[in-house]
C-alpha cells in the first residue's frame, strides 16, 4: 500500500486501488472504471488526476520505485565497504519485496510490459542509479571481475527475484529467511568477486 503523505487523498486512493487491482487482474484486465469504483470516486474524477490509464500506470510505478529507493538509501551506509553495501543492497531489496508483495509483483508486470519501453532512458537510469553506481565502483577498484555493468545488473536482479520467489512460497520464520538471503548473497558475491584483487 502506498502511504506517501505528500499525495492528496484522492490520487492516493486511486493509486492504491490500481495497485490492488493490477496485482490481481493485470493491466489489461483492469478497466479504469473498476479502479475508480475501488477508490470510491466517480469515473470522471480519475481522469482529472491521471489523463490516461498509461499515465496512471507510469505514476504508480514511479511512486513504488521512489519508495524503494528511499528504503534502500536508508539502509545503505556510504562508509561501508563495497561488499557490505552490496550485501545490504541485495538483502534489503529482497526484504522490501517480501514486505511489499503487491508492489513487487506490479514492478515485475511493468518490467515485462510495453510501459517500460515508454519510460525514458533518463527515468530508467535514475531507477537503477543506486545499484549501477556501486557496480561501477566495484569494477573501477577491481573488486569485481571485468564484466559489463549490464551483465552484473541482470545477474544480480535475477538472483534477487529468484530468492524472493523461493521465500514468498516457502513460508519460513524470519530468522531462517534472513539466513537464506545472506547465504544467497554470498553465492552471488563469489560470482562477481575478482580473485586477483590486491
UniProtKB/TrEMBL annotation:
Source organism, top-level taxon: Bacteria
Keywords: DNA-binding
Gene3D superfamilies registered for this protein in UniProt: Tetracycline Repressor, domain 2
Domain HTH tetR-type: 8-68
DNA-binding region: 31-50
Molecular function in Gene Ontology: DNA binding
PANTHER family assigned to the protein according to its UniProt record, in alphabetical order: HTH-TYPE TRANSCRIPTIONAL REGULATOR RUTR, REGULATORY PROTEIN
Protein name per its UniProtKB record: Transcriptional regulator, TetR family
Organism: Chryseolinea serpens
Lineage, opening ranks: Bacteria, Pseudomonadati, Bacteroidota, Cytophagia, Cytophagales
Amino acid at each position: 500500500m502506498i502511504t506517501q503523505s505528500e499525495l492528496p487523498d484522492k490520487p492516493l486512493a486511486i493509486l492504491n486501488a490500481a495497485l490492488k487491482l493490477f496485482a490481481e487482474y493485470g493491466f489489461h484486465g483492469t478497466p479504469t472504471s473498476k479502479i475508480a469504483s475501488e477508490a470510491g470516486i466517480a469515473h470522471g474524477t480519475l481522469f482529472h488526476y491521471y489523463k490516461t490509464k498509461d499515465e496512471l500506470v507510469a505514476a504508480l510505478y514511479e511512486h513504488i520505485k521512489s519508495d524503494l529507493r528511499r528504503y534502500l538509501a536508508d539502509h545503505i551506509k556510504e562508509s561501508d565497504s563495497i561488499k557490505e553495501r552490496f550485501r545490504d543492497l541485495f538483502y534489503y531489496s529482497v526484504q522490501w519485496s517480501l514486505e511489499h508483495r503487491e508492489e513487487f509483483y506490479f514492478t515485475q508486470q511493468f518490467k515485462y510490459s510495453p510501459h517500460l519501453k515508454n519510460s525514458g532512458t533518463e527515468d530508467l537510469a535514475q531507477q537503477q542509479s543506486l545499484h549501477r553506481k556501486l557496480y561501477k565502483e566495484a569494477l573501477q577498484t577491481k573488486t569485481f571481475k571485468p564484466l559489463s555493468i549490464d551483465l552484473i545488473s541482470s545477474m544480480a536482479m535475477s538472483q534477487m527475484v529468484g530468492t524472493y520467489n523461493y521465500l514468498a512460497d516457502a513460508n519460513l520464520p524470519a530468522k531462517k529467511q534472513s539466513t537464506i538471503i545472506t547465504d544467497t548473497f554470498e553465492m552471488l558475491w563469489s560470482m562477481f568477486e575478482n580473485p586477483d584483487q590486491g
